[in-house]
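Table S2 (continued). Query chain:
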Amino acid sequence: MKTIDYYIIRKFLGTFFFTLILLIFIVIVFDISEKIDDFLQHNTPLKEIIFDYYINFIPYFINLFSYLLIFISVIFFTSQMASRSEIVAILSSGISFRRLLFPYLVSSFILGVLSFILTNFVIPYTNRSMLSFENKYVRDEKTSSDQNVHKQISPGTFIYLENFSLTTKVGYKFSLEKFSNRELTYKIMADKITYDSIRNRWKLEFYYTRKLDGLNESIAKGKLLDTILPLKPKDLVEDIEEVKIMGYRELREHIAKKKLRGDPDLQAFQVKKFERWAFPFATIILTLIGVAVSSRKARGGIGFHLGFGLALTFLYILFMQISSVFGAFGGVVPWLAVWIPNIIFGIIAVVLIRIAPK
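Corresponding output:
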C-alpha cells in the first residue's frame, strides 16, 4: 500500500459515505411525508417511529442503494481526478493502469463484504422490527392463503386445502394422503379443519378415513377428530416477502422444507438465496466500469461520464431484476439466472478497462 492507494481509498469511501448520509436524510423526509397520515391515524408513539422503524430502516436502505451510490462515487471523484490531470500524472510517474485499479478494488471489496454481512446477518433481524411496525401502523397483514393449497408435509405425506384463513385458523375441504412405495396406504378427508393454538392440535370436522393394507381396506367416519400434524397455520399463508426476515441459515433450512413439500414457489426462494451471494459482486463490477468510463479527461467534464455510466448502471440493475424474475417464474435455473448479469457486465467491465486510455 502506497500513499496514492490511501489517497484513492479515502476519496472512494469518503465520497460514498458522505453521499449515503445525505441520501438517507432525504429518503427519510420523503418517507415521513408519505406515512404521516398513517402515523397520526394510529397515534403512533414517537419512540416507536424512531427506534422500531427508522433505525431499522437505515440498514435496509443502505444495502438497497449501495450499488448505485458506489458507482456514482467512483464516477464523481475519478472524473475530478481526471479533470485535474491527476490520472495523467499518476500514469506518467510509471504506475500502470492495472496498478491504479488496486485501491479501487480494495475499496469495492470492503463495501462488497459489508453488503454481504448486511444482507445475510443484519438486515433480516432489523427487518423484523420494521415489518412488525408496518403491519401494526401502516398496512394490514396478509390474512388468507391462496386457493387450492397443496403441500408435502413429510416424506410420502401430502395435504390439500381448498382455502384457509390465518385470522380464524380455519380451512375447508381438507385431505391428507400417505404413500408407501408409490401406493396409497392412508387417506383422511374433512369438510372443515381448525387449529387449536392452545393445545397445538388440529380439529377435523365431519371426517372420513381410508386405510389400505394390500387387499384389505378399512373405512371410518365421524363428526370430530383431534390430530397432530407437522404443520403450522403460518405454513399455509407464506409470502415471498418473508425472505426479508430470514438469516442465511434460516433461508437454507426454509428452502429444504419447501423442497420436501414440493411448494410451487421454491424457485423464487432459491433465487433470493443466490442473490445474497451474487449481488455483492456488483460492487466490484460497477467500480471497474466506473473507473474505465471516468478516467478519461473529457471536454464535457463529469456530466458526460455520469450520464454514460448511469445508463450502464440502470441497464445492469434492470437486467438483474428481469433475470431474477425468469429464475423465479420462467424456468431458468435459479443460480444461472442470478449470475448471468454479473457474467455479462463483468465481461463489459473487462472490455472497457482494456480500451481505457493508459
